């Protein structure tokens, strides 16, 4: 079933506020995500009226505590750490794509990952993905790529592979692939 685009029209501040609250009720969003959603609804997104309207609604939501990128970043990073077992790199990348400011990301990641043993986290991730000790070079490369996509550092990945007795030739080839 195809969804139709929302009708672009002129909204009052109250109508746009109601739309924004509804969007936040469905799930947490960053300031950038909410701005994108609201701009998609207005008739002329580049007009001064549209920009002012969006900024007024954003300010009102921030003042009421409904919209806070710091809270979003810390909640998001702890959820990704605990539920998906992702490493720092993956969470940082995802928060950047959601429009969170770099300094906010840095604080949230520091707090979320301060007491996390990265190697233990990577092993939990592999267990969750049902990945076992690689039997050959191809499987070792697969494990390497999977952990790299999950946001773990190469130092951690090589540490795990060395403990699994992956031969030095394979590790050298993977090291070359990383660069």
How are the elements arranged and paired?
Layout: H1 13-26, H2 31-41, H3 48-63, H4 69-84, H5 88-97, H6 102-113, H7 118-128, H8 137-149, H9 154-163, H10 168-178
How would you summarize this macromolecular structure in one to three sentences?
This protein is mostly helical and 179 residues long. The chain contains ten helices and no strands. The longest helix is centred in the N-terminal third of the chain and has 16 residues, at 48-63.
Number of H/I helices:
10
Oligomer kind: single chain
Q: What is the global morphology?
A: elongated
Helix percentage = 55-70%
Uncertain runs are none
Distance between the termini: 44 Å
- State the major sheet: none
How many domains? The number is 3
Structural class: mainly alpha
Cα radius of gyration in angstroms? 22 Å
DSSP strand content: under 5%
Mean pLDDT: 91
The SSE order reads: HHHHHHHHHH
